[in-house]
Amino acid sequence: MSNQSEWDLEIIQDFITESNEHLSKIELDCLGLENDPSNMELLNNLFRSFHTIKGMAGFIEENTILEISHSTETLLDFFRRGGKNVSPSIIDLILMSADIIKHTCSLLTEWERICITPEVTEHLSNLSEWVNLLKCSEKAEPEAIHLGEIMIQEGKLSEEELLLLLKKQKESSEPRFLGQLAVLEGKATPKQVVESLRKQEVIRGDVKRTENIISSTMRISSDKVDSLVDMMGELLILQAVLEQEAKKRFVSDDIFMQNFVRNVRITKRLQDYAMSLRMISLKPLLQRAQRIGRDTAKALNKQVDVVIGGDETEADRNVTEKLAEPLMHLVRNCVGHGIENTESRVMAGKPEAGQINIRAFTRRGHVYIEISDDGQGIDHDKVYRKAVEKKLIESSKNLSKDECLDLIFLPGFTTAKEVDAVSGRGVGLDVVKTEIAKLGGKVELKTEINKGTTFTLKLPVNLAVISGTIVGIGDNFYIIPTLCIRKIAKVSIEDWVTIKGMRRMVRQGKDLFSLIPIDKILELETNPENLIVVVEQDGKTAAIPVDEVKERRDIVVKSLNGEFRELGYVSGATILGDGRVSLILDIENLVRMGGEKNDNNSFGL
Amino acid sequence: MITTASGCKYLIFALGNEEFGLPIQRVKEIIGMLTITRVPKTLGFVKGVINLRGKIIPVMDLRLKFGLDEKQYDERTCLIVVEIAGYSKLIALAVDSVSEVLSIQSAEIEAPPDFASQGESGFLRGMGKVKDRVLLLLDVDGVINNQDLVNLKKNIDIGGEIHVQQTEA
Questions:
Q1: Structure confidence by residue, pLDDT tens digits, A166-201
Q2: What distance in Å separates the CA atoms of residue A2 and residue A119, rounded to the nearest whole number?
Q3: Closest chain A residue to B90, measured at CA
Q4: In this structure, are residues A290 and A296 in contact, taking their beta carbons and an 8 Å threshold?
Q5: Fewest 10 Å CB contacts: which of A430, A473, A572, A589?
Q6: Taking a C-beta distance cutoff of 8 angstroms, is the pair A263, A235 a contact?
Q7: Does B20 have pLDDT greater than 80?
Q8: Do A521 and B58 touch (CB under 8 A)?
Q9: Beta-carbon pairs below 8 A across chains A and B
Q10: A476-481 and A465-473 beta bridge pairing
Q11: Looking at this predicted complex, what is its ipTM?
């Protein structure tokens, strides 16, 4: 495999992409089949998927995959033709095949020499053993494909009648279907024919329909889509510059302005389309989570039903990709820690099988994924004691219930007594939290002892365009994400609350908001004092004094050079209508650093 | 490297009374001054960020970087946009003025004086002597990678004392 030309590489890439699509479909179908073992359609799907993989593997001469898919296909064929129900052990076998193929695919890109490992050999012999077993038990049932045969099998037609009909069909001047003839000749009712046709369709596998679905989508390299989105961003920025210039030169009913406004509208739609190209369904992700949940439960000998919902939800590809690891981790965590073993569940009066719900939905520019279990919940006292024991916190600290629970996100925290394959290594929830935070999202936790636990992941739908409010502070304009703004208010001198000579809070009617010391953060000489923007982040509020609020518009988020990334007050930048760069304030960080508690201000002022 | 038989081309610019040279192949473009957006809480020589045709890139003031006095930007002030090695990212260097591109033979280049090879002056590649001029030839990576790129920021400790973070180069 040393002299791989680029052409080969491309073919291999295509193979991997396509295989992965089929593999995720296989997983889904397997899980479906496990719940509904008599579902012929799923069985057919599985058969076809393996068949396709086999064909492709033959083309690129990848023998491991070829053999595995061939043997699995043979196995499936027995069930398919025999119309038999598939047992869970067979499902395991099929999933195992999928895993091996997936693993082999991942090696393909690295040009590693693929050899048939003992694992593969063992699996292959398992498969052939099953096939032999089935062969023995199988009575030679002919494959019923023709409609006539089906109708005979179902007792709707006698063999003589069928022969007669076939003869007529041949002699007839105009081409007719057998079903039509049967109805015309009064041998069967239309309803009977339709029933038999359905059955035939299932047996044949409705290949045609699948082909139609495939042809309505196309595969584009993600680089192209990314460039398109980037270019759209540039276009929006340029348009904002033009708009500012045009407003100076033309009156609003000038023909130029009218056309310009139309242009703006078209660009906006174009932008939406471009963004939607990068939106991908969360379905594969949720399915993977479901699979992980199932496997983990098996490994731990627990009974767990994993139900997924909202799989039509979409999110930016970049978000979805990075979401996988944290999500898998949480699911494993739920199965491992959340769900009790069967005896404890029965004792607690719960159904034997634990239930894990994974639900995705969109709300106000964010994607939410909820992972909830009906397990034992998290005891905040236990968490607290554990954290003290592990010396993660000092024992003297007085923490609220929620603060105790937050401790499980600390690095090195684990309550499992022993290290096992599933969980308990103490790396985990802290990684989940940081990964999600990197995406600009956050993890929330709700738990009730003996009722269950819900983790909620909250993420931005896309990372490229947000609605921003432009505010003037000092001599610069800054952006506050509009979704964070609760209100904008005028304040007078007597509204300020001064502590030790420093303005620390601002009064608004009955409310008192702690103040983010924006003058210190932005190194300003003076602090604006007439206008505040009250921002809210996860239920915590704080006020930012500003000099002016300019306008609200969709802004294109540009990440700052890596070197600036650790500036706590800024999350990115954008380019304003006048071509100047404007910094986007990181409200979450600002609120966290400055606004959370009035008495325990971490600014140390 | 665009090397002639025995030398290399340098973009010559001025800071105060001194003339400096940057290897031309590292220079992406030269532009006039643009509006700079200040980024608070960064080191003094980081002037902020500019919009270079839709790209947001940082601006470093070479005067301040080399410990010279600050000078008001005027119509002669130029931004030299260079690529940061290995990052495929750009950074703009603000200089007093840009004069010419000179081909300097390697015979005309002397090693930097010993006192300059350490610490602050580690970004000198050599001294070019062309006729009666002395040109300080800069090592681009020495200038921008020396310590500051990972460290354009001051330690964030809002409201408290400002610590300048120093990492080993």
A1: 777 777 766 667 777 777 777 777 777 777 777 776
A2: 26
A3: A561
A4: no
A5: A430
A6: no
A7: yes
A8: no
A9: 85
A10: antiparallel
A11: 0.77
Nearest CA to CA, how far is A572 from chain B (Å)? Answer: 10
- What is the value of pTM for the model shown? 0.54
Helix or strand or coil: residue A72? Answer: helix
- Please identify which residue in the block is written with the tokens 């059955």: A199
Measure the CA–CA gap between A568 and A588, rounded to whole angstroms: 10
Angle between helices A63-82 and A40-59 (to 10 degrees): 160
- What span, in angstroms and rounded, lies between the C-alpha atoms of A59 and A64? 13
- What letter represents residue A426's amino acid? G
From residue A243, how far is each of A236, A260, A273, A367, B97 by CA, in Å?
A: 10, 8, 22, 32, 34
- Closest to A364 in 3D by CA, of A482, A281, A539, A444: A482
Phi, psi of A288 (to 5 degrees): -65, -40
Give the nearest partner residue to A476 out of B38, B55, B156, using CB atoms: B38
Report the residue from A238, A520, A579 with minimal CB separation from B158: A520
Distance (Å, whole) CA A553 – CA A149: 67
- Contact between chains at A581 and B41 (C-beta distance less than 8 A): no
d(CA B145, CA A503): 41
CA dist A424 and A415 (Å) reads 7
Which one-letter amino acid corresponds to residue A31?
A: L
DSSP A384-433: HHHHHHTTSS-TT----HHHHHHGGGSTT----SS--SSS-SS-SHHHHH
Indicate the domain borders of chain B: 7-147
B40 vs A128: CA distance, rounded Å: 69
Smallest CA–CA distance from B149 into chain A, residue: A563
Largest CA distance in chain A: 106
Q: Check CB contact under 8 Å for A580 and B37.
A: yes
Q: In whole angstroms, what is the distance from residue B92 CA to residue B78 CA?
A: 9
Chain A partners of B54 at a C-beta cutoff of 8 Å? Answer: 233-234, 237-238, 575
What span, in angstroms and rounded, lies between the C-alpha atoms of B157 and B165?
Answer: 11
A465-595 CATH, one of 2.30.30.40, 2.40.128.280, 1.20.1250.20, 3.30.2420.10: 2.30.30.40
Place of tokens 């045709």: B53
How many Å is the Cα radius of gyration of chain B?
16
Distance of CA B5 to the CA centre of its chain: 27
Q: What CATH number labels A280-460?
A: 3.30.565.10
Residue-wise pLDDT for B108-149, tens only, equals 888 777 665 455 556 788 888 888 888 989 888 777 764 454
CA atoms within 13 A on the CB side of A235: 17
Q: How far is B153 from chain A (nearest CA, A)?
A: 7
B159 CB near a chain A CB, below 8 Å?
yes
Give every residue of chain A whose pLDDT is below 50, as ranges. Answer: 1-4, 139-144, 206-215, 417-426, 595-605
Architecture of the CATH domain B7-147: Beta Barrel (2.40)
A238–B40 C-beta distance less than 8 A: no
Of the candidates B37, B41, B149, the beta carbon closest to that of A581 is on B37
Structure-block tokens of residue A244: 């500012």
Taking only residues 21 to 60 of chain B, the set having a beta carbon closer than 8 angstroms to any beta carbon of chain A reads: 35, 37-42, 48-51, 54-58
Residue type, A391: K
Question: By C-alpha distance, which of A547, A365, A569 is closest to A467?
Answer: A365
